[in-house]
Amino acid sequence: MVVSRSGLAGIGVFVTNAPGIIDPDYRGEIKVLLYNGGFQAHYVQHGDRIAQLIIAPFVPATCREVQLLTETARGEAGFGSTGT
Fold first, then answer.
1. Containing H/E element for 6?
2. pLDDT of the residue at 80
3. Fewer beta carbons within 10 angstroms: which end of the chain, N or C?
4. Cβ atoms within 10 Å, residue 15
5. Sign of torsion over alpha carbons 80, 82, 83, 84
6. How confident is the model at residue 24, as a pLDDT?
7. β 51-53/2-4 pair status
8. Gap between the Cα atoms of 4 and 39, Å rounded
């Protein structure tokens, strides 16, 4: 995953589609799309650190169709239901 660096995000420059997901079988050059939401121009120089790469394991999921889901403590409570 490609994500913004906090130093740049703090001035309004961040990775446009963060987190940018890189497929496990991708072999090309990694490009980073940046957005400047600040009020001043920001120039990127060769060698600047503009993003962070997070390496995570890929675990393929196995899905199966069910007719009924079991009950949980959370139930159908949606956004904001955990107190945050």
1. helix 6-9
2. 67
3. C
4. 21
5. negative
6. 84
7. antiparallel
8. 18
Which tokens is 34 given? 């940046």
Give the separation between CA 74 and CA 64, rounded to whole angstroms.
22
CA distance 14 to 37: 8
Q: How many CB atoms lie within 10 A of CB 2?
A: 19
Give the pLDDT of the chain (84 residues) as one tens digit per residue. Answer: 999 999 998 899 999 988 999 988 899 999 999 999 999 999 999 999 999 999 988 888 999 999 998 888 777 767 766 665
Let me know: does 36 contact 13? Beta carbons within 8 Å.
yes
